[in-house]
Amino acid sequence: xxxxxxxxxxxxxxxxxxxxxxxxxxxxxxxxxxxxxxxxxxxxxxxxxxxxxxxxxxxxxxxxxxxxxxxxxxxxxxxxxxxxxxxxxxxxxxxxxxxxxxxxxxxxxxxxxxxxxxxxxxxxxxxxxxxxxxxxxxxxxxxxxxxxxxxxxxxxxxxxxxxxxxxxxxxxxxxxxxxxxxxxxxxxxxxxxxxxxxxxxxxxxxxxxxxxxxxxxxxxxxxxxxxxxxxxxxxxxxxxxxxxxxxxxxxxxxxxxxxxxxxxxxxxxxxxxxxxxxxxxxxxxxxxxxxxxxxxxxxxxxxxxxxxxxxxxxxxxxxxxxxxxxxxxxxxxxxxxxxxxxxxxxxxxxxxxxxxxxxxxxxxxxxxxxxxxxxxxxxxxxxxxxxxxxxxxxxxxxxxxxxxxxxxxxxxxxxxxxxxxxxxxxxxxxxxxxxxxxxxxxxxxxxxxxxxxxxxxxx
Length: 459
Prior knowledge:
The chain is an alpha/beta fold and 459 residues long.
């Protein structure tokens, strides 16, 4: 190692301080600084190693827990003791820049490794008997170093990662099952030829049309059929969303009958199906109003729990940004770009709710992409745009139990667009969407606590 190896002690302290301040920071740091050995200071290596051990146990990191882990590792004195740990939290005012500091730590570590490898090559060159043969061998070594530092910038069908992906793609094409996740609503899924894998899906509507109800309907289906989902809400509280989800897990025929019988009957039915909701792994974050905080939290949680299948954000125009912008349109465009960056990093579908402007449109055609409120980056970054609207009340008689909601896929990068048949059916008191012709998709399983009784469908 050179006498003055590259190092960034302040960045190392900032990373450790951020991890002590914010329970999510360790997961963001770990994605960049994977090993304690990438820190230069022996004391920092010991502290970071203790933090990784705590994270692996699923425990929350704070000064007391880290100090206890260091004592168990016999490394408290090496780390600098309790006083040094306390000083780390004072090193930075916020944990928001943990990734920036982590990059600085990783870059210094890579610079040290490069200097060491090039120094070794130079020493070996002086002893080489055949300079031409050694030059060829050195090229292979340098290629490996470049790949390690900058990543492999090219790919071929023979590469293992690409080959596996192509095999998976062809196997799914030959089968009957969709290639990605489905929403559980027949009319929508018929348009999604390949399902949902890592798209940005924008669901847009005017207020009170049902975009949140559709989001929760899809979230419940995905959580039941595929695995955990994450909802980031800047609109509704977690308590409110779970109340609505409790209604959604009930069979819609029984729910309407219970509503007709009164509040007590509805409460009894929801209580009966509450264990069903508790078995769904649906996580709700209703505390992050700034999009930067929300995307950071989502990324950290996806690193912590790789089983998260889909992310929902409610809704676009309700989020704020820490960036100074000139007007609402620039702010929404920035927020949409942050969501696009989130999708690129977590590689999961991200469903985003958005408002439609109050421009005029014909009922038979419905709104278009130009009706998206502050539509710039929304239209550009979205892979799928689903628009919802209702016909004018004067055109049809509305039921207190159900509503007809028109829907159209206005954009889809890899599939067809157009109206979704006769639309979708909203079960009003349940805030549940179903297919008007095919009912509710429960897959191969039935709702928990269902009975064999054939209740009369009330509509």
